[in-house]
Amino acid sequence: MSDAVIKPPHGSPSAPLVTKQRTLAADVWRQFRQHRGGVVGAIVFLTIVFLVIFGPYLHGINPAALDVRSRNLGISFAHPMGTDNLGRDMFAQVLAGGRTSLSVGITAMMLSLLLGTTIGVVAGYFKRLDGPLMRLTDLFLALPLLPLLLVIIMLFRDVLRARFGPETGIFLLIVFVIGITSWMQTARIVRGAVLSVKEQEFVLAAKSIGTRERRIVTRHILPNVLSPIMVSATLGIATAIITESALSFLGLGFPSDFPTWGRLLYDGVNFMTINPSRVIWPGLAISLTVLSINYVGDGLRDALDPRIRGR
Amino acid sequence: MSVELAEHPINQPASPAPLVRVEDLLMHFPVYKGILRRQIGAVKAVDGLTFDIRKGETLGLVGESGCGKSTTGRALLRLYRATGGRILFEGKDIAALDGEPLRRMRPRMQMIFQDPQASLNPRMTVGSIIAEPLIEHGVYKGEARKAKVRELLDAVGLNPDYVNRYPHEFSGGQRQRIGIARALALDPDFIVCDEPIAALDVSIQAQVVNLLKDLQKKLGLTYLFISHDLSMVKHIADRVAVMYLGKMVELADVATLFAVPKHPYTKALLSAVPVPDPQVEATRKRIILKGDIPDPANPPVGCKFCTRCPEAIERCFVEEPVWREVDPGRHVACHRV
Question: Where along chain B do its domains lie?
Answer without folding.
Answer: 18-332
